[in-house]
UniProtKB/TrEMBL annotation:
Protein name: Nitroreductase domain-containing protein
Nitroreductase domain sequence ranges: 106-162
Organism the protein comes from: Cryptotermes secundus
Residue ranges, annotated region (Disordered): 40-69
The keyword Chaperone is assigned to this record: no
Length: 175
């Protein structure tokens, strides 16, 4: 050790600077490696099923009746209805698919709302049918709104047309 003393005595500022630079670089590297620019994104991908199981609760439980507008659209005691698949004969499948095609081929995009009154039972049945639509792991709770006020209908149309214009001119390219 004595033989190195003249060297250390002569070059101690450089040695100290080297040690400080090494420790600083090591610290910066470790902090850069552990830094997460997207908190929460570093977790492995979780399917909607896993997220729903992890939550294991419902955001509506926190309501405690303080805000009646924030409540589940479904009853708490709603029972699961299992799928009862019934395989149809090929001939019937072909016939039904043709009927479905013929019905669907009559559909058209409309730009105006009808002013004709629609019976409330028809609206209820349409909503009931739409409510059977599947959603990804039941994580997209469907919400349906029935609008009867002509002014609100007009505003909805304006909003939809504005969004459509933006979609065609900016998102999907020039028309």
């Amino acid at each position: 050790m004595q033989s190195y003393m003249p060297f250390i005595n002569e070059y101690w500022p450089f040695i100290a600077a080297g040690v400080i630079c090494y420790l600083g670089a090591k610290f910066l590297y470790q902090s850069a490696v552990s830094w997460d620019p997207n908190p929460g994104a570093a977790r492995s991908y979780e399917t909607p099923d896993k997220v729903a199981e992890a939550d294991d609760g419902d955001e509506f439980e926190e309501n405690d009746g303080q805000n009646p507008e924030l409540s589940s659209a479904l009853p708490w005691d709603l029972e699961h209805v299992p799928l009862e698949f019934k395989r149809l004969p090929v001939e019937e499948t072909i016939q039904r698919s043709l009927e479905f095609y013929n019905l669907m081929s009559t559909r058209r995009t409309v730009r105006f709302f009808s002013s004709d009154p629609i019976p409330a039972d028809v609206i209820r049945n349409i909503i009931r049918a739409a409510g059977t639509a599947p959603s990804g792991a039941h994580t997209e709770p469907w919400t349906y709104v029935v609008i009867s006020d002509p002014e609100v209908k007009k505003k909805v149309r304006e909003i939809v047309e504005e969004e459509e214009y933006i979609n065609y001119t900016k998102r999907m390219g020039k028309v």
